[in-house]
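[Automated response] Your request has been received and processed.

Submitted sequence:
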Amino acid sequence: MDSNEFRRYGHEIVEWIARYFENVGQYPVKSRVKPGEIKNALPELPPSGSESFDLFMKDFDEVIMPGITHWQSPNFFAYFPANSSPPSVLAEMLTAALGAQCMLWETSPAAAELEEKMMEWLKVMTALPAEFEGVIQDSASSSTLAALITAREKVTRFCSNREGLGDKGRLRVYASTQTHSSVEKGAGVAGFGRDNLVKVAVRSDYSMDPEALSIAIEDDIAAGFTPCCVVATLGTTGTTAIDPLRAIGEICRKHGIWLHVDAALGGTALLLPEMRWMTDGIEYADSLVFNPHKWMFTNFDCSAYFVRDAASLIRSFEILPEYLKTRTRGEVNDYRDWGIPLGRRFRALKLWAVIRCYGVEKLRSMIREHIRLAKMLAGLVEAEMNFELMAPVPLNTVCFRYCPAGMDDRDANSLNERINHALNDTGKIYLTHTKIDGRYVLRMVTAQTSVTESHVLQAWDLIRETASALSPKNGAVDVD
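Generated structure:
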């Protein structure tokens, strides 16, 4: 492809993207393809000769697009958002064009220094402690793994990377029963062993119970275990529960335990001064992660990881073969020493574009509106006969179920599962579910970049209609 062809196709793709942004709400939100359908539509063998980009785009539209679930649709209410925005997409195009591998300062000084500045901006925007230093990781899962490994190294006096855990293998990690699965995966990958993740009971609002944490730690110490790390969450995946940082932090300080804060979704809400009650006790935290690629309109991947003791993080991950030695080492941040991968993308550019194009006040107004929409929806649920609100709504996620009077939990679980599938099969909205105390619960997240009140109200009308149509009292039949 020569420069003239590139220019022509580039313009066409920008037009395609602009039309997509304009029309994404008209697509079926959840892909309707069956397993294997996309793969079977593709040739068995690659082409032996070159093919035109026109043919590529034709197949993209006809083969690939039917298999896409549209996360950028304003009718996407599932999981947590993976928000994008026009400034982020344009900056990502520049990142792709540069093709920079940003492992060291010398391999792209601008990338390293822009990343350092963006972490400083985010720290100010969210009122995190001044002594925190930040790095952009690919995901909260990687950030949490980095925290676990650093905690492990500190408690073993930086021996376990070299020697293995050996007789130090009785280390314990603590997190609530509502904590994200990445903590369990990280405990396995980091060598603690999943059996050494202690799942702590929660309170009535599904936040970690500090008293239960304290008892678990004391019991482990008496049994010969070494408490190593506690993971607290600001916005759990199931219900967006907020763990009490101060009470947890005081326990960690008493026992010399690393405190990591997983604020993957909820951290973005710290842009709002009125939401900073969530970080009461943040002075006890050793590390924190939140994802601009979730709720700050910066397309995946972009995870902001902050650490109080950057020297321990670097000591846990640095390794210096001859081919990576540079004259500037020690004078600059070589971010390949701040996490697991050597290779690093230029993620800071799209974050810079988003913050500059929206500005802090516009970002705040959008986040504030998403929280308002969730509270509005929660009020509609509470006011509707036969619907139940199943958890508090501190952020942007509403957990509820349909349960007509007299229906037991088993039948309600089955009914709500059918409602969930029926709603998603319409293509009009997309919801996911969780289980709370054994009850099948619908989750609706009001945090997509372009979602409005009308989208939420239309979704709620569809939910009510679908639930009523499937209700046994209306003669609906359960057909498997």
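Summary generated for your ticket: Residues 101 and 202 are 43 Å apart (CA to CA). The domain at 100-345 is CATH 3.40.640.10 (Aspartate Aminotransferase; domain 2).
If you did not submit this request, please reply to this message.
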